[in-house]
Amino acid sequence: MNFSSRCSLGTLVVALSLPVFVGDHDLAAADDLANDYPLFVSTWPFGKPANELALKTVVGGGVLLDGIEAGIRLTESDFENASVGIGGLPNRRGVVQLDACIMSGKGHQAGAVGAIEGILHPISVARRVMEKTPHVLLVGQGAQDFALSQGFAVQQLLTSKARRAWEQWKAKQLANPPEGSHDTIAMVGLDAAGDLAGGCSTSGLAYKLPGRVGDSPLIGDGLYVDNEIGAAGATGVGENVLRYCGSFLVVEYMRQGLHPQEACIKTIERIARLDPLNVDELFINFIAIDKKGRFGAAGTGEGFQYSVTYPGYSKVLKSAALSSRSVGITGGNQPESVK
Ligand code: ASP
User: Fold this and answer.
1) Is 200 in the pocket of ligand 1 (CB under 6 A)?
2) pTM higher than 0.90, yes or no?
């Protein structure tokens, strides 16, 4: 596929003037993935071991959703990861509150938990919500009660390292969390049968208001899977994703025929046009795969790193990067025609 022939003129100009714009990922090569399944794409370099476990799980006989769940559980168990599961930075009161969701393209099923406390694997609770209840989203105490009823145990998720960071933040009385104090694992997958699935898990923004729920557990925001088209996931400042149904929008752009990477770029461009914030201040990133096994990602500012794994291949790649310089959008509700 010829990427440039499918770009808008504006995007093409940017792509030509800024070689890093399209990221490390070779879009033409991505069209050759048809026989390499299962395929897993996830956010950040810490997604790579998660993808690898997901691959192993499915190759070992698990279904796609087992792979997604196993991979994300690995990240949730990592004490060193300050933004997912145990070790995650707490809310303003020093309590770790976790958000997660899971979605199966087959049957269009979803489950999620928001602001759940004391449960190490919110991704697994989200799956139980999907499989064992007539609901999609449980929050707070209700989510924890449900987890307990399903045999999950409550444990302390605030590590001494995270507690120290929170105490330092409190002592400085900072209004906002320091930069880089949040991330998410969002993972999307495609199996050999052509079915798609995804999951997402995070401790959210560090030092958030108690009860704050971000984009990650919300279907269509932190994650969206459409078994006819593709799947997308998000990481970054949730408030800037969930006002736009970000992952849903990425999938809708793929429905219009865009390559997953172009769909991520288009979504950020659209958000940047509407949003009062400058594109460099949005801190939003998307990953996407389509039904054909093509993948891509885009992020604001410098872009971000994402992980791609399929049999015989596992790499951390750099996404397309959209800055106000490259996009020519400075925020402030600019209509599309102005661009
Ligand atoms: N999207 C997450 C949230 O807003 C945080 C992140 O991915 O950086 O809760």
Assistant:
1) no
2) no
